[in-house]
């Protein structure tokens, strides 16, 4: 015989902490307790880590959103690896900082947690790092992903602009440079500065650039594009992969340090160990 609703509710305890227009925010102590009651309408807050295994437990029931514990991230990022599993399935998800919330305590997750990591879909709905979990859960409950936001993962922001129109543009890949960036923008991106990256840099022809070093890699192939750019008179530097993740230019701009730079960048004052935001400003105000 199949499990009855009463048996399931007893074995999979859930608590509704907020409801609006039939959509609910549900707290629970384990991802194991997410079930078909939560499909489509519920933002679930299981106080499990959001690795791939708990993410699978949640995803099979297709909740509206998921917020869990980051297990202080841990080795290989295992505590948050499920965020991108859920992203691939179109489910907004985030984690709470493990130093703000107890493991296995759904009530504490909801009341005390602060967001530490988000996937793209959650970010599109307004969830951000440092936000109270309660507020993040409400955003996931009350807002809808648009087809445009799901299909368009291009993030681009002008963070500084001079009167003459030169500016610093942060975007995750140099392939997303626009024609208007040629000779005008310092492009802070998060793709590698290897051989293929150099090709895209020369095609974009920005005022200057900062890309990622790809962990340097074999024969320093992650930064070989610096030399190619220098030969073309293009000033550039790299984000140290130990300080900011590849693929996320916004964290690179906020948190990254410079690991390498070419001659034209050094002439503008850029130095190894310098914050990326400072280096980008120096590249902006300096002349080619």
SSE blueprint:
Layout: H1 5-11, E1 15-20, E2 23-28, E3 42-46, H2 52-59, E4 65-69, H3 82-88, E5 93-96, H4 106-112, E6 115-118, H5 120-124, H6 133-142, H7 147-151, E7 156-161, E8 167-171, E9 185-192, H8 195-204, E10 208-212, H9 225-231, E11 235-239, H10 249-255, E12 258-261, H11 263-267, H12 276-285
Parallel strand pairs: 2-3, 3-4, 4-5, 8-9, 9-10, 10-11
Antiparallel strand pairs: 1-2, 5-6, 7-8, 11-12
TL;DR?
With 288 residues, the protein is an alpha/beta fold. Helix content is 31%, strand content 22%.
Describe it for me?
This protein is of the alpha/beta class. The protein is 31% helix and 22% strand. The chain has a six-stranded mixed sheet, sandwiched between helices. The chain has a six-stranded mixed sheet with strand order 7-8-9-10-11-12, with helices on both faces. Helix 8 (195-204) packs parallel to helix 9. The chain is elongated and about 65 Å long. The mean pLDDT is 92.
